[in-house]
Amino acid sequence: MNTPARMGAYVLGLAVVFAGAFGIGGAVGATPPSASVNNGHGGHGTPAQAAPKTDHVPGGLQVSQNGYTLTPRTTTITPGEWTEFRFTVDGPDGRPVTAYETQHDKKLHLIVVSRDATIFRHVHPELAGDGTWSVPLTLPDAGAYRVFADFVPQGGAGLTLGADLYASGDYAPRPLPAPGRTVTVDGYTVRLDGTLTPGAASRLVAEISKDGRPVTDLQPYLAAYGHLVALRVGDLAYLHVHPDGAPGDGVTTAGPGITFYAEVPSRGDYRLFLDFKHDGTVHTAAFTVRAEQPSGAAPATTADHGSEHAHSGH
Fold first, then answer.
1. pLDDT for residue 264
2. Which residue, among 242, 228, 264, 207, has the nearest Cα to 111 in the 3D structure?
3. Do residues 183 and 285 make contact, with C-beta atoms less than 8 angstroms apart?
4. Fewer Cβ neighbours under 10 Å: the N or C end of the chain?
5. pLDDT band at 297 (very low <50, low <70, confident <90, very high)
6. Other residues' Cβ atoms within 10 Å of the Cβ of residue 58
7. Nearest 10 degrees: CA dihedral of 188, 191, 197, 200?
8. Which tens digits make up the pLDDT trace of 49-94?
9. Contact, 42 vs 64, CB < 8 A?
10. CA distances, 65 to each of 69, 70, 112, 272 (Å)
11. How far is CA 224 from CA 17, 134, 242, 267, in A?
12. Do 242 and 227 form a contact (C-beta atoms < 8 A)?
């Protein structure tokens, strides 16, 4: 993101599909004309017709990939209490990685999601000189959580690694919220328009309003007007989507609509978490969206072979 090439790709917008790592892999099916295929966590690309891919592991399902391993130093958290969550990313030489590329204003993005896909945290840890990352973290309820670390090691390709985290205590899973396209959060109403179609680039538009009036002065947050994280319900396979355009490009408006392109590999329910910033505060709107194959269409081959790739990163 800190280089013109990466920002250029970001401005074009990113068509995102599940990947073996966050920001790694190729698209399945067509990429929208305005979107660029991104090979890397915010790396650069050019508009292209993406080719079908074969067997690949979905993003965030592996703790180790390409020689890099996510190693939590904190594995248990007491619900409701602030805990210093610490971890390292160990490189191919077995040592903690200390040099990272900056992507979307940060060297690493940490996503924490409950296994029932109802609790979501997007935080940014600090890196110590010895390669240890740390961030104050509080989780409201007992249970199992999944931690996703999205990063680009210096000179390498982008990765999403995942590991489990536990909040001790009695766990009562919450039901998945019903599919819906309008949610209210912190006094804002967010409507999500568009359809998720497996194997095809899907255009999604988030419309934000407050007190019945469109919000037209969204503020940049991590160099964007919105960030969208999507998780497949069941295995928490991970994808990240960024919107068309960027603040200050002379074209993109600061609301009320934020346009995204996403590609999902299979039918089923997905949890979508939208971060946006207004009046100096970051808000998160959560949706349950069902992806369904159009009537008469052949099933996406990617679902059969696990070819689930992601383009982009934070």
1. 83
2. 228
3. yes
4. N
5. low
6. 27
7. -80
8. 333 343 566 689 999 999 999 999 999 999 999 999 999 999 999 9
9. no
10. 7, 9, 19, 25
11. 19, 25, 8, 29
12. yes
Burial call 184-211: b when 16+ CB within 10 Å, e when fewer? eeeebbbbbebebbbbbbbbbebbbebe
CA 303 to CA 190: how far, in whole Å? Answer: 30
Q: What is the pLDDT of residues 205-255, one digit of tens each?
A: 999 999 999 999 999 998 899 999 999 999 999 876 767 888 999 899 999
Long-range CB pairs of 153-157 (<8 Å, 24+ gap) are 153/68, 153/89, 153/91, 153/97, 153/99, 153/100, 153/101, 154/99, 154/100, 154/101, 155/99, 156/66, 156/68, 157/21, 157/23, 157/24, 157/39, 157/40, 157/41, 157/43, 157/66
Beta-bridge mates of residue 277: 219, 282
β-pair type (64-65, 68-72): antiparallel
The string of DSSP codes covering 99-128 is -B--BTTBSEEEEEEETTS--EEEE-PEEP
Q: Where are the alpha helices (DSSP H) in the chain?
A: 4-12, 301-305
**Average pLDDT, whole number, for the chain?**
80
**pLDDT computed for residue 104 by the predictor:** 82
Q: How many CB atoms lie within 10 A of CB 307?
A: 25
Task: Give the span between the Cα atoms of 261 and 17, in whole angstroms.
Answer: 9
Residues across the chain:
314
Residue type, 124: H
